[in-house]
Design a protein that fits this description.
Nucleoside Triphosphate Pyrophosphohydrolase, TIM Barrel, 2 domains, eight-stranded parallel beta barrel, four-stranded mixed sheet, 10 helices, 15 strands, NUDIX_hydrolase_dom
Amino acid sequence: MTRKRVDVAAGVLLRADGAYLLGQRAPDTVYAGYWEFPGGKVEPGETPAQALCRELDEELGIRVTRLRPWLLREHRYEHAHVRLHFFEVAAWEGALDDKVHSALVWVRPGEVAPEPMLPANGPILKALRLPRTMGITRAAQVGVDAQLAALERALACGLQLVQLREHGLDPAAREAFAREALARVHAHGGLLLINADAGLVQRIGADGIHLPAHTLMAARSRPEFGWVGASCHSRAELEHAAALGLDYALLGPVRPTATHPGQPALGWPGFAGLAAGLPVPVFALGGLGEQDMESAREAGAHGIAAIRGAWAVAD
């Protein structure tokens, strides 16, 4: 059976404390009682962004003043093939005045969301649990003790996502460092992913694995870990990460870096072009720091990843 394809714009309204808004569908609607992100169908002649601004005005009585592109997900219901354009709604004017939902609720990342969740919106909840900054370790360059001290200070300042990338350490030293790093990250409620080494993930109980690009492209299924991401440098690699159902991708370099000398920088327009229209959150990487967060998110990035910039607060 051929299903009608419907384009829908959905808004992730973000409060200053990071909480996002969910609405419960009214009794007289399809999937009554289910929870969803506010939004609605894209009408002929509208862009998804225009449709979302109109829908939020009609549904919630607010006027959007700041909108960021985020994810594009597709879902096949019994009655339609829905293509959902998700935007982050960073700022708006007016008080919420709900006109269509049975209830509204603000949910902080990490809190249990109300159920049942509309099936097409469910995967977005995990993406919203993903922190916005990833720190990538460099203990082989600066020394294990110096990296652990920098990690501790960065965690105290709010870092919640760490990739351990230590090919320059011998296996025994890498495992000892990973165990120390994991203890610190978990003490602060964060996530630690190990680059490339699935065995190390399993031995120490890390939160997941990060795949180098060549490993990503050789994979035919998602590794069986709670969190899985990958490094990407092309649209083909990003699309393969999405096809495998990975939780995030890293894309860069946005600027020239010492880590990848001679590799052309994407710049923000190049990054935005490659990362657009994907169902997987994409981190911007390459010569970036926290001062670049707003530029990254305006370009459609979930956040930033950094090898040096993540430790600036500690240095």
